[in-house]
Each structure stands twice: as C-alpha cells, then as structure tokens.
Specification:
Bound molecules: adenosine monophosphate, zinc ion
Radius of gyration: 28 Å
Number of helices: 25
Mean pLDDT: 90
Number of strands: 20
Largest sheet: 5 strands, mixed
Strand content: 15-25%
Low-confidence stretches: none
Structural class: alpha+beta
Shape: globular
Length: 665
C-alpha cells in the first residue's frame, strides 16, 4: 500500500469508528486502538500535505482558530416555530390544518423539541462545506471550524445523498457530559456552568476549535432543505438522514390521528426526564411534504409545524436560610438553603439566588415558602414567594455588607450586580480558590495535587499562595490526612514538573481577573515576556487585539500590587516559564499586520494549516470566507469557483502560494 492508499484506508476506518461510537453508540474498537489509528493518520498527513482532505477525521481534534465569525446568508430561511401551551391550542391548530387541506387524511410526525442551539449545515457532494448558526433566520454566523469537531456530525456522507442540501438540527450538550464538565470545573476551582443549553450555544462561538473538540457536544438532526432530496414526507426525511450517517433520535413517531399525537405529547411530558438531553417540548409536523407546501409559511413560521411547550415543573418549599458563598475572585453568591423537596426527579436542597437585586426583586426572606422551578435546567431557581404563607414575624432580607469568611466590608462596582470581598490576599476562599485555579488542568496542570489537598495545605499553614507550592517538601506533606509517601512524592514531583508549562498558560494560571485562556494567549503573544507586561500601561494594552479597558485595568492593577510582584519574583527564582519559548519567538513577526487572508484550495509547498499558521504568526488574520474585509485570497489548486467570483466582484486580490511566500522575506 502506498502512502495515499494508507491514508485513505485510515480515513475510511476512522470515519466508520466515529459513526459507530458517536451516532450508533456501539463502538467496535477500544479507545486506545482508535487513538493509535488516529495518531498514525495524523503522522502520515503531516508528512503528505498534498493529500489534504477537508473531511479527514483528523480534523475532529480542532486547532483552527476563528477570530471573527463571519455573517453569511442562509440559502433558505430558518424559520421559528409557533408555540402552543395546551391541548386545546393543539386541537385548534389541527382543525385549521384540516380545513386548509380539505377532506383528506392528514398524518403528523412528532419529534421532541431539543433544547440547544440551532444549526444549519450545508453538504455538497457528500462533504460538509459550511455550518451556520440560526442568527436572525436570514443570516447566521459561520461556525464551520467548530462544528467539524463534533463527532456525531459526518464530514463525509454515506449512501445515496443528493448533490447539495442543508440539514438542520440542534447542538445539545447531554446531561452526562455537562455534569462531567462541571465536576471538572469545580475541581479546577472554576465556576460551574449554569445549564446545558447556554453552554452548548456558547461553545459554538469559542474561538479555538480545539476547545470545542473537548466538549461532549452532540448534534440532533430534524430537517432537510434542498431540491431533489428524494423523499415525500418528514418521516422519510428523518430516515434518510439516518442512512446518510446523521444522528436522528429514534423517538420520532409517525402519528395517523390527533389522538396518537396527544398520546405522544402526554408520554413525553412525563418521561422527558429520562432522556439523556434536555427537551422543552414536542414539535408536531404535518408529515406529507406536499401538504407542507400547500400550507406554506406565515411571516415567521411554517403553518405546517407547531411546538407544544411542556410546563416547567414547579414545587413550593420552605426557605430555611440564606447563606453566602465567596468565589475565587471574591464574588459573593447568595444561596437559598431549602427544605429538601422532590423536583423533576431529583431532590433539591439549594438554589442560587444570584445576587442582591434578585433577592430584592422577589422580596425573598428567610422563613418564606418559595416556588422553585426547574425548566430543563440543572440548577433550580426560585421564581417567586407564596406571600399568603409568609409568617407574621417575617423581616426583609438584609443583604450582608461584610464578607462571611473574613469580615471585610464588601464592595460593589457600578454596573456589576455582584458584591465583592476586596480582601484579595487575606480572604481564605479567595486564597485557596486562586491556588486551585493555578494548579488546574488548563493552567499549570499539576498532577498529584487536587482542590481538597490545597485546602488542607492552607489550613495547616503550609501554603498561603501558589509560590509556596514550590517550597513544599515530601516530609511536610506526608503527615497530612490521606497522604502516603508515594502520594506526597507525586505531589512534589508534579509541582516541579509545572516549571515546564509554557508562558501563556502561566499567565492564565496567575488568576488575573478577566484574563482567561484566550486573553492570556493574546497577552503572551503581544508582550512575549512577563517583564514587558509588568511595566505596560492601560493605553498600550488596549492596542492589543480584543483587549478592552476592563481587562487592561485589571492587568495593570495586578502587576502594581506588591504582593503579586513578590510572588512573581519568587516564581521566577523557581524556574517558571516567564517568556515565550525560543521556538515560538522565532518566526513571529508583524509583517502582515492589519491584513486579512482567506486561504482556499490545495497547495504544493505547505498544508492549509501551515499556511494559516504562517499568516497568523506574521500578525495577520485568517478569514473563513471572502468578504469586503478580505485583503488577499490565497488560491490553491481546486479552489471553489464561487470564492474566485466573489473575490473578483469585491476587488479582492487573488494570489498564489508562491506570491504569498514572497511577501514574507
Ligand atoms: P423557537 O426558537 O421557539 O422559535 O423554536 C424554533 C427552534 O426550535 C428551531 O430553530 C430549532 O432549532 C428548534 N428545534 C428543536 N427541535 C426541533 C425539531 N424537532 N424540529 C424543529 N425545530 C426544532
Ligand atoms: Zn472575604
């Protein structure tokens, strides 16, 4: 087998394994074997950029960065759905349909209404070419790079697919994956996400697709638009989509009568909590596409479809006490401690009250009977007070004005709903929270040290900031609860190993307020070492791409603080990476600053990824499609004709690979 054949064989095999695992949920090889095959493919592809394929399973790991999500028009509009909230509403709708269509039998396809983020994915000749968010229905954001990392979405279709079509679905984050992500966040000292839906839609707009690749997202498909699809009904459409390799939930049901529709609705209203993902209702669609066409659309939704919204489950219970939590950044979160009550299948004991305004808005008091709701979300919320039950001696809630952990007077800044404890360096949960953040996986990734141990070490006064970690000895750690010689050794070794973590992650680990992973990368790239960053000003900082005043102020403040300066000097003495590695520094210029390149087609000397990296390393942006903002279109072999036409009509210069390389000395 030559390299080309080997690459093709691996791609085909990995596609099938992805399909078995993510669409059918029945893997046929071990994760280890899968990883080995993927690794082999990646190595071969790196050696042979000439065999680049935009549908290769190797692209699933992400790595493409989208700076600005370009707005692109949908080929056909993404409509909303009309909502109904009662059986009467539904019956009225069905009568209207029947009247409109005349005296013919009408069938319905019932599906669940998946609660996530809508997506429209375009396939051409069996290959995924573009994915757009719903946006305003007429145009959405191009999130192709991110969508390609979702493994249940085929990059290459199987079977008798039409030449071109759009398929629509919902990107969801199943409960299991969501819970796992949150457990990890809590372990890392980060705030957990509120609910799967927002996390799913937020994921689509992450700039770094490798982060998206790590999230356990799924795509559930429900509709195809295009010509000559080869089906006559909604139900057949779902079956076809399945054959082509898409994940289409099997709960969809073809109903021959309104009674059957009602049974479906009733069944899932009760059983929806057993599903692996969130659903907030049922969508009922007239089955025949011919009928659909006759019925048509209103100005915002199809007349042939109707959503039936489940009622959010609500219970009332006693609010025993309001307590306050202090986070790593000093943010205060009030928590309602409830008399335990069963709600949507789980026992609820606590509910977040968010902030002081929220408490004032509902006039929530200790001793109140409150209404608690769980609208598909994980964390229940208080939606009101049963005033009739309010005890006579009830007193309004007085929000705390001092930190519950360290007694410092709380502060609140204009425009921020939260109160903060400003005792950054003396407030215990802030101190341990910062160290927990420092050691977390995406920061210094210190193996052998977890969040609870950090708390123990702090309590035993062995550490009071993250620099202290580096002076810990095996002998100091061993006497701690649940520590043995081996684990103490692992801890000390893990700390030592973290001196190899690259600068951008160190910067993230420092826990500067508002400096997340992406901002840390930007700062590292712009300043190259900590000494330059230490002396920078707000004016300089805001010149860096995507750094606003809020972040700039926070950075300057951080480095002005003497305690921080001391900690950084100490970290330096322990050998922490405080500058970009030589390898990263080399090859980085500003030569192409201010320009935007679009790369299309196949190239001779470089792979597309290498080309894009070169563009970014030299200070320019990579755009995902040609627009008036594009400076150059770098055209390779087999570039799509539409890109060329668009570039020509907008007067965007089209250059070859060699011409591009000549721009860089
Ligand atoms: P709404 O946003 O309430 O107007 O509802 C319309 C949205 O419901 C669509 O944009 C879809 O993303 C979403 N949806 C979820 N499940 C389905 C389904 N089975 N059929 C059609 N739309 C669905
Ligand atoms: Zn405090």
């Amino acid at each position: 087998m030559d390299s080309k054949e080997k690459i093709e064989a691996l791609r085909t095999a990995l596609r099938e394994h992805n399909y078995n695992y993510y669409v059918l949920d029945t893997p046929t090889i071990s994760d280890y074997d899968f990883d080995m095959q993927l690794k082999e493919l990646q190595d071969l592809e790196a050696k042979h950029p000439e065999f680049y394929d935009a549908t290769s399973p190797s692209l699933r790991v992400g790595g493409m960065v989208t700076k600005n999500f370009e707005t692109v028009a949908h080929d056909s509009r993404m409509y909303s759905l009309d909502n109904s909230y009662s059986k009467e509403d539904l019956e009225d709708w069905e009568k209207r349909i029947q009247r409109n269509l005349g005296d013919v039998p009408v069938e319905f396809t019932c599906e669940l209404k998946y609660d996530g983020a809508s997506i429209s994915i375009t396939y051409e000749n069996g290959k995924l070419v573009r994915a757009l968010t719903r946006g305003d229905g007429f145009q959405g954001d191009d999130v192709t790079n991110n969508i390609k990392t979702i493994k249940s979405i085929p990059l290459q279709l199987k079977g008798d697919y039409p030449a071109k079509f759009d398929i629509r679905g919902e990107i969801v984050l199943p409960f299991e994956g969501f819970t796992r992500m949150n457990a990890e966040r809590i372990e890392n000292g980060e705030e957990p996400y509120m609910n799967p839906r927002n996390t799913a839609s937020g994921s689509l707009k992450l700039q770094d697709s490798s982060l998206v690749a790590q999230r356990p997202l799924e795509c559930l498909l429900y509709g195809i638009v295009g010509e000559n699809i080869g089906v006559e009904s909604q139900f057949q459409m779902l079956e076809k989509a399945r054959v082509w390799g898409f994940k289409v939930p099997t709960v969809a049901k073809l109903c021959k009568s309104t009674d059957e529709v009602m049974n479906f609705v009733e069944h899932w209203d009760i059983h929806r909590h057993e599903l692996p993902y969130e659903t907030d209702g049922v969508v009922i669609k007239v089955n025949s596409l011919q009928h659909q066409e006759e019925l048509g659309y209103t100005s915002k939704s199809p007349r042939w479809a109707m959503a039936y919204k489940f009622k959010a489950e609500q219970v009332s219970t006693l609010l025993n006490e309001i307590t306050y939590q202090v986070g790593r950044t000093g943010a205060i979160t009030p928590v309602a401690n409830l008399e335990p009550v069963l709600l949507a299948g789980t026992t609820v004991k606590r509910a977040s009250l968010h902030n002081a305004d929220q408490i004032a808005k509902f006039d929530i008091r200790e001793g109140d009977t409150v209404f608690v709701e769980k609208g598909g979300e994980i964390i229940p919320k208080i939606v009101g007070v049963d005033f009739a039950q309010r005890p006579l001696n009830s007193v309004p809630t007085k929000y705390i004005d001092h930190c519950p952990e360290c007694s410092t007077a709380l502060e609140r800044t204009e425009g921020d709903a939260k109160h903060y404890c400003p005792n950054f360096y003396g407030c215990p949960p802030q101190i341990t929270g910062r160290i927990q953040h420092y050691i977390s996986r995406k920061a210094m990734d210190i193996e052998g040290l977890g969040g609870e141990t950090v708390e123990l070490l702090y309590k035993e006064q062995l550490i009071k900031n993250y620099a202290d970690l580096y002076t810990l000895t095996k002998e100091q750690v061993m006497p701690l609860e649940r520590m043995a010689e081996k684990s103490a050794e692992n801890l000390v070794n893990g700390v030592k190993a973290s001196t190899q973590i690259p600068f951008e992650r160190v910067l993230f680990a420092l826990g500067i307020r508002f400096v997340g992973e992406t901002v840390a990368k930007k700062l590292a790239k712009a300043y190259k070492n900590i000494d330059a960053l230490k002396v920078t000003t707000v004016e300089e900082l805001v010149k860096v791409d995507e750094i606003g005043e809020r972040i700039a102020n926070s950075v300057v403040e951080f480095f002005q603080n003497e305690t921080n300066q001391e900690i950084i000097e100490r970290l330096k003495s322990y050998g922490i990476q405080f500058e970009l590695s030589a390898e990263k520094l080399e090859n980085q210029t500003e030569e192409l600053k201010g320009q935007t390149f679009v790369v299309s087609g196949v190239f001779e000397k470089l792979s597309r990824n290498e080309l894009k990296k070169l563009i970014e390393d030299n200070g320019a942006k990579v755009g995902s499609s040609v627009s008036s903002k594009t400076t150059f279109l770098v055209a390779g072999d087999k570039m799509g004709p539409s890109k060329r036409t668009k570039a020509e009509s907008l007067g965007v210069a089209i250059i070859t690979e060699d011409e591009f390389l000549a721009m860089l000395k």
